[in-house]
Specification:
Residues 27-479 form the Major facilitator superfamily (MFS) profile domain. By secondary structure, the chain is an all-alpha fold. The chain is built from 24 helices and four strands. A two-stranded antiparallel ribbon has the order 1-4.
C-alpha cells in the first residue's frame, strides 16, 4: 500500500525509485516510540525532583530549604550533589552502555535486537524506580533506565535513517524527536496530577508509569523487520535483502539502492573494528567532528538544564509547586507543536538554515532570561508576577527555537553523515558524547546556578554563539542526499575537502 512518491538523486546522477509505503511508515512509527521513553524520562526528572513529597522522603535537606530556610540563597535551595546524582545516574549508565556494548551489539546483531534489549532494560528500571524504598534504590532504577537508553538511542536513530527514503529522511527521523516530545508531555501532565495525590506517593506513579511507553516500544520492536543495510552488514542473502527492500520502497526497481548498500558494506570488509577505524583514519575526521560536537552543543546551549530543572527554576523565582508543574506542561505543549512544524520544513529548507535560525531565536531568549534574573531576583524574596510571567514566556520562546532546529537535528544529522563501515560506531560516539555532556549539565546545573546565579544563562548564550559559527563554517548541507552517497558533501566542502583530499592523496602515494 503506497502513500506517496519519492525519488532521490545519487552521486552519479541516478535516481532511487520507490514510494513511501505503509509498511515503512508503520515500521518507523513503531521504532520512533524509542523517543517516547527518553522524553518521558526528561519529563519526570525535573518534575519529581521538585515534588515536596519526593524531596521529603529522599532529600530532606533540600526539602527544609524549600520550606523557608531564609539563610540559603534563592539560587542555592536545590543545590545537592545527591539530588543531581539521581538525575545524572541514568546518563552515566547510558554512557557506559554506549561505549562498551551497544555499538558492537547493534553492528553485529542488528538494530531490532538492540531495541528489544533497550526496551526490556527500561521496563526493569521503571519498576525499580517506582518501588524505591531509599535513595540508592531510586538511583539504581535510574541506572537501569540508562542502560535501556544506551541501547535504544543507539539503534532507533540508525533504524530510522536507514529505513527512510532519502528525500524524506529528515521528516522520518524527526519521528524520534516528535515521540520524545509526546513522552515528555505525558510525563509533565502526569507529574501535575500526581503532585495533587494525598498520601505523598504521587511520585511513585510518575516514575512507575515509565513502563507504559517502554512496554509499547519493546512489544513493537519484536515485530519490526531488520533494515536492509543491517542485513547486508550481517551477510544475509542478497535475494532476501532485495525482497525486503522492494517491500519497503513499494517498487521492484531497487537495484541501484541495493548496489550502493552492498558496495558500502564491501568497502567495510577490512577486518578492522568500526570504532578503531573511525578514530584512527583521517578520512572520517569530518563525521567524527559532527558526532562529537553536535550533541555537545545541544547540551551546552542549556536545553537540558531547562528540561530537567524547569520546575525547580520556576520555584526558585517564587512560583508554587503546582503552578510550576502546570507551567512546564504548557512549555512542553509549545515544544511539541514546534516539533510538528519541523516535520513540514526540514526537507524543504535544509539543515543549515534551520540550525542557524533556531540558534538566533535561542540566543535572544537566553540573554533576556539572564537579564531578567540579574535585575529582578536576589538572594532573598521572590520576583514580581510580571517578570515571572515574562520569564515563563521567554522559556517558551527558547524551547520553540530549539525544538524546530537543534532538537531533532542533533539526532538526524549524525545519522546521515557516516558511511556504513563506521555507522554503528559513529552513532555510538554520538550517543556517548550526548551522555557525557548531559551528565555534565545534569550534575553541575544546580551547583552552577548557586554560584553563577543569573550569569549561568549568559554562559549558555556564549555557547550558542559558538555552535552557530560551527554550523555556518563547518557543517555542509545533507538534505536529500542518499545516505550511502553522502560522502560527496565532504569532498566539496571548503575546509573538510582539504582533510579528505589529503587522505586520498596519501593513500594514492602509498599505492
Amino acid at each position: 500500500m503506497a502513500v506517496g512518491p519519492v525519488g532521490a538523486g545519487g552521486e552519479d546522477g541516478r535516481q532511487y525509485g520507490g514510494r513511501i509505503t505503509m509498511f515503512v511508515a508503520l515500521s518507523c512509527v513503531t521504532a520512533a516510540m524509542g523517543g517516547a521513553i527518553f522524553g518521558y524520562d526528561l519529563g519526570t526528572s525535573g518534575g519529581v525532583s521538585s515534588m515536596g513529597s519526593f524531596l521529603k522522603e529522599f532529600f530532606p535537606d533540600v526539602y527544609r530549604r524549600m520550606e523557608g530556610d531564609v539563610r540559603v540563597s534563592n539560587y542555592c535551595k536545590f543545590d545537592s550533589q545527591l539530588l543531581t546524582l539521581f538525575t545524572s545516574s541514568l546518563y552515566i549508565a547510558g554512557l557506559l552502555t554506549a561505549m562498551l556494548l551497544s555499538s558492537w551489539f547493534t553492528a553485529r546483531r542488528g538494530r531490532r535486537p538492540s531495541m528489544i534489549i533497550g526496551g526490556a532494560a527500561f521496563l526493569a528500571g521503571a519498576a525499580v524506580s517506582g518501588g524505591a524504598v531509599n535513595v540508592y534504590m531510586a538511583i539504581l532504577g535510574r541506572a537501569l533506565l540508562g542502560v535501556g537508553l544506551g541501547f535504544a538511542n543507539q539503534a532507533v536513530l540508525l533504524y530510522l535513517s536507514e529505513m527512510a527514503p532519502a528525500r524524506f529522511r529528515g521528516a522520518f527521523s524527526n519521528g524520534f524527536q516528535l515521540s520524545l516530545c509526546l513522552g515528555s508531555l505525558a510525563a509533565n501532565i502526569i507529574n501535575y496530577g500526581a503532585e495533587k495525590i494525598t498520601g505523598g506517593w504521587g511520585w511513585r506513579l510518575s516514575l512507575g508509569l515509565a513502563g507504559v511507553p517502554a512496554a509499547l516500544f519493546t512489544l513493537g520492536a519484536v515485530f519490526l523487520p531488520e533494515t536492509p543495510n543491517s542485513l547486508v552488514q550481517q551477510g544475509e542473502d542478497r535475494g532476501k535483502v532485495r525482497a525486503l527492500l522492494q517491500r519497503i520502497r513499494g517498487t521492484d526497481a531497487v537495484d541501484d539502492e541495493l548496489d550502493d548498500i552492498v558496495a558500502a558494506n564491501d568497502a567495510a570488509q577490512g577486518g578492522e573494528n568500526g570504532l578503531r577505524l573511525l578514530l584512527s583514519q583521517p578520512r572520517y575526521r569530518p563525521q567524527l567532528a559532527v558526532a562529537v560536537l553536535m550533541p555537545a552543543f545541544t547540551q551546552l546551549n542549556g536545553i537540558n538544564a531547562i528540561g530537567f530543572y524547569a520546575p525547580v527554576l520556576l520555584r526558585t523565582v517564587g512560583m508554587g509547586e503546582s503552578l510550576a508543574l502546570l507551567s512546564t506542561v504548557i512549555t512542553v505543549v509549545i515544544y511539541t507543536a514546534s516539533t510538528v512544524v519541523f516535520v513540514f520544513v526540514i526537507d524543504r529548507f535544509g539543515r543549515r538554515t534551520l540550525l542557524i535560525a533556531g540558534s538566533l531565536q535561542m540566543l535572544a531568549s537566553e540573554v533576556m532570561i539572564g537579564a531578567i534574573l540579574e535585575a529582578e531576583l536576589g538572594d532573598e524574596g521572590g520576583m514580581g508576577r510580571g517578570y515571572a510571567a515574562a520569564l515563563f514566556v521567554l522559556i517558551g520562546v527558547y524551547v520553540a527555537g530549539y525544538s524546530w532546529s537543534w532538537g531533532p537535528m542533533t539526532w538526524l544529522v549524525p545519522t546521515e553523515v557516516f558511511p556504513l563501515e563506521v555507522r554503528a560506531a559513529g552513532q555510538s560516539v554520538t550517543v556517548a558524547s550526548g551522555f557525557v555532556f548531559t551528565i555534565f549539565i545534569a550534575q553541575g546545573f544546580l551547583a552552577m546556578l548557586c554560584r553563577m546565579r543569573a550569569w549561568l544563562f549568559f554562559f549558555f548564550a556564549g555557547w550558542i554563539v559558538v555552535m552557530t559559527g560551527f554550523v555556518y563554517w563547518f557543517l555542509p548541507e545533507t538534505k536529500g542526499m542518499p545516505i550511502e552517497q553522502v560522502g560527496k558533501v565532504w569532498k566539496e566542502h571548503w575546509f573538510w575537502g582539504r582533510v579528505v583530499g589529503l587522505h586520498d592523496l596519501q593513500a594514492t602515494e602509498k599505492l
